[in-house]
Amino acid sequence: MNQKNREREYDVLIIGGGAAGMLCGGFAAQNGLRTAVVERNSRPARKVMITGKGRCNVTNDCSPESFIRMVKRNGRFLYSAANAFPPSSTMEFFQGLGVPLKVERGNRVFPVSDKAVDIVDALTGFVKKSGGEILTGRCLSLAIEEGAIRGVVLEDGSTLSAPAAVIATGGMSYPLTGSTGDGYALAEQAGHEIVEPRPSLVPILTAEPFCSAMMGLSLRNVTLTLTDRSRKKPVFQELGEMLFTHFGVSGPLVLSASAHIDPRRFADFTLSIDLKPGLDEAQLDARLLRDFTQNQNKDFGNSLSSLLPAKLIPVAVSRSGIPAHTKVNQITREQRRSFIALLKQFTLTPVAFRPIEEAIVTSGGVTVSQVNPGSMESKLVKGLFFAGEVLDVDAYTGGFNLQIAFSTGFLAAQGVIRSLKG
Q: Does residue 422 carry a pLDDT above 80?
C-alpha cells in the first residue's frame, strides 16, 4: 500500500474482490460513493476464474422463486436479494458489459466464449469505469467506534477510513484463490456468531478399495443416485458425468450429490451408479446376450470390452461373483440377471468428505439472524455489511452460488447507498 493510499478516506470499503465484492463495489461507485475494493491477491476474482472448469457458470436462467428453492441453507433469508437482483438481472448486467451469454443443460448460463476470464474482466472493468479503486492488501481488523464502522486496518499497518464496510471475503474453499476464512474473524470481532464452516459441493471418500484401481476413469452419461436409508428414499438422482479417484469419487454428479449428505450421519447414505441408464433390464439383457454370442468361446473377463470401459471390467467381474475364466456360453440365466442388476445398481459406500480446501463452496458462515435481509447490514454494528459466501447461505450446483454472490452484492451496495445518502 503506497503512501497515497494510506492517507485516503473513502465512503465505503469492500473487503474482498470476488464476485460479490466486485459487483458491490461497482454499483456503490456508480452511485457516486468513494469506493475501494481491498483484495489480498494481486488479481481480483481468482475463484471466479476456476468456476465451471474455467468456463464460469455465471448464473442459472430461472425465476427468483426457483433460485431460492435451490438454496439449501437459509433460502428465505435471500428473498429480498433474489428479487432485487434476480438471475435475469445478472444476465442483463454481463450482456450490458459486452459479454454475450448462452444457456445450456439445466438452464446453466455461461459466456459464449466459454472463458471465465471474460466475466472477471467485465467485473474489473465495471469497478474501474464506475470510478472505484481496486487496492491490493489484506484487512486484519475493523476500526469500530461507538458501535459503528470507522474503517479497516491493513496487514501493512496502514488504516483506510470509511463510515461503511462490506465483508465479501468468501468462505474457506480453494484457499489459493484467497478464500482463507479472513471474513469470519472480522465478523467475530464485530460480535457476529459464525456457524462452523464445512465443505459443500465436494469430492467424496468411499469405503471400497477398488476405486483407486479405477483412478482417472471418467464415466459419462451415467445416473448417480444418493439414497438416505434412514428415510428409505433417494434424495438425489441425476444423469451426467463422474470420476473415480485414488480416494473415492468426484466429478459434477458427485459434487452435486454431496450437497445432500449430512456429514454427521454418513452411515445412512448409499451411492448407486446406473452404468447403462439408456437401457432397461430387458434391453440390457438382450445386449449382453448379443455380446456373449459374438464372444461365445471367450472367458467372461474378456468378453465385456464393448460394454464397459477397460478399467471397470475387472472390478465389475470381481463384484459379479462370476469367475473371470468362465466361458460365456456357460454363464447361467441367473448369473446374467445378477450381473445386469450390478450394472444397473453399482453401489458405493460414502464415508467422508474431502477437506474443505477442496470444496467448491463453504457451508456455514456468518449467522444470518444477525444480518438485515433487506439491506445485508449488520444488526450489531452500524455501517457493516455482508455479501456472498461469507454468509451462512449456500446452494446446489448450476450457477446458484454465484447468483447468491451477485444478489447479495447488489443488495449490500443498495444498503450502503441508502445508509450514506439517506
A: no
Task: Give, in degrees to the nearest 5, the angle at Cα 355 between 353 and 360.
Answer: 85
Q: What is the pLDDT of residue 51?
A: 83
Residues 253 and 284 grouped into a single domain: yes
DSSP of 51-107: GGGGT---EE-S-HHHHHHTEEESGGGGHHHHHHS-HHHHHHHHHHTT--EEE-GGG
pLDDT digit string, tens, across residues 328-385: 999 999 999 999 999 999 999 999 999 988 888 889 999 999 999 999 999 999 999 9
pTM for this predicted structure:
0.87
Let me know if 407 is exposed, middle or buried by CB neighbors in 10 A (0-12, 13-18, 19+). Answer: buried
pLDDT per position as a tens digit, 3-44: 444 558 999 999 999 999 999 999 999 999 999 999 998 888
Q: Is 117 exposed, middle or buried, given 0-12, 13-18 or 19+ CB atoms closer than 10 A?
A: middle
- The per-residue pLDDT for range 135-162, each reduced to its tens digit, is 999 999 999 999 999 999 999 999 999 9
Same domain flag for 112 and 11? yes
What is the pLDDT, as a whole number, of residue 1? 46
CB atoms within 10 A of CB 145: 8
User: Taking a C-beta distance cutoff of 8 angstroms, is the pair 358, 199 a contact?
Assistant: yes
Query: Domain of 215?
Result: 203-353
313 in the same domain as 409: no
Q: Do 152 and 13 form a contact (C-beta atoms < 8 A)? A: yes
- Report which residue type is found at 303: S
Together in a domain, 227 and 349: yes
Looking at the structure, do residues 208 and 327 belong to the same domain, yes or no? yes
Identify the residue with better confidence: 295 or 50. Answer: 295
Number of domains in the chain: 2
CB neighbour list of residue 139: distance below 8 Å, 6 or more residues apart: 15, 38, 40, 152, 153, 154, 155, 182, 186
How far apart, in whole angstroms, are the C-alpha atoms of residue 278 and residue 271? 19
Number of CB atoms found within 10 A of residue 174's CB: 21
* Secondary-structure breakdown of the chain: helix, strand, coil percentages, each rounded to the nearest 5: 40, 25, 35
Round to whole Å and give the CA distance between 178 and 175: 5
For residues 284, 290, 295, 300, the Cα torsion angle rounded to the nearest 10 degrees is 20
Q: Is the pLDDT of residue 313 over 60?
A: yes
Q: How many CA atoms lie within 13 A of 59 on its CB side?
A: 29
